[in-house]
Amino acid sequence: MLYVSLACRLALVAVMTLAAVSKLRSPGVFAASLEGFDFIPARLRSPLAVLVPVAELLIALLLAVPPTVTIGFVLATLFCCGLTAVPILVLVRGKTVKCACFGASEVPMSGWHVARNAVLLAAAGLGTLVALRLGDGVPAHAPGIALAVVAAGLLTTLIVFVDDIAALFESPVAVGDLGR
């Protein structure tokens, strides 16, 4: 189970870091995207534009340092609960809000975003359970570590590029419709 925990840990570190860096690189884009969330009071949107990437970096750091892995997983689980709730609320309210989780995007939130965040939540929750049961240990066998690294890389890629993957399943635009 330590190898599963390692894969979850590496994927969460990568995803949280990439999300935070994209938000900090273009802070105005993320701040502007928060205006579409009418369930977030206007006075909280500006602080959230700073606090969300800071929380993502903190979680990544806690998961990267062996003595703090368990607390990192617990915080990641709580954070991912919020991340999963956001697109659910957007969809339930029938709003069209663009997802700026990994930088500027023209893709509105959809069920794909709920699924993506649910996968992150599952990884955080599974990592938390393993860490609470087995501790913050690091597995010792190279083949298992290699497999965990590959699994984390695949999971990270699927999560970060969910908008592109979702586009593959949409109906194609006919050439005649491009000018309309």
From TrEMBL:
Protein name (record): MauE/DoxX family redox-associated membrane protein
Keywords: Membrane, Transmembrane, Transmembrane helix
InterPro entries linked: Methylamine_util_MauE (IPR009908)
Compartments (UniProt record): Membrane
Pfam families hit by this protein: MauE
Topological type in the membrane: Multi-pass membrane protein
Domain of life: Bacteria
Primary location: membrane
Domain named Methylamine utilisation protein MauE: residues: 2-129
Transmembrane segments: 47-65, 72-92, 112-132, 144-162
